[in-house]
Amino acid sequence: MTTTSFSCGVTGHYVSQWESKPKSRKFGQGPIWEMPSDFCILEFEPTGSRKMWTYATCGMAELPARPVELHLFSPVECDGHIELLTALAHYHRTGEPVGLGHTVNFGRPWLPGSACNHGLISLPYLDGRSLEEFRLAGVGSIHFLWLIPITQSEREYKMTFGLEALEEKFDAAKLDYLNPCRPSVI
Length: 186
Description:
Elements: H1 3-18, E1 23-25, E2 40-44, E3 53-58, E4 68-74, H2 79-94, E5 103-105, E6 116-122, H3 129-132, E7 133-136, E8 140-151, H4 152-161, H5 163-173
Parallel strand pairs: 4-8
Antiparallel strand pairs: 1-2, 2-3, 3-4, 5-6, 6-8, 7-8
Helix pairs in contact: 4-5
């Protein structure tokens, strides 16, 4: 399968789910040459039915052994999300693979003033199973997962008590996942 066929398949899956055409964005710094030539971050503007910005990897899962693509929601347009997802995709492809239940250190706040400086890789609860798994000819199943910004204390709680316990805390607190200044649920 060519990288173009792969990226067209992944983009088509996102578009069919979110019913919106994205803008293809690239982060031009760092060892980007180690990524597929058409790797990009897809930027979906808010729509009438989706009142948030959505940033999604396209080309992170190309290797069959690491079939994961990630998306991140934001209340605002932010080039920092392009950098963040590119760095995470690079780490996934050249370092250690990431997957469901993993946490990552953003190395900075998710957005200015936010206590959320880590991310939790979770199921795409807002979009459901139709987004979560996509079968692409020549690749197999690709899992589309949600990168949720979390605080250091939420990460520590997850490391101690597990993913399900943290997600129960999120449910009980009615997590405001789009609020960069939200308080920690722990």
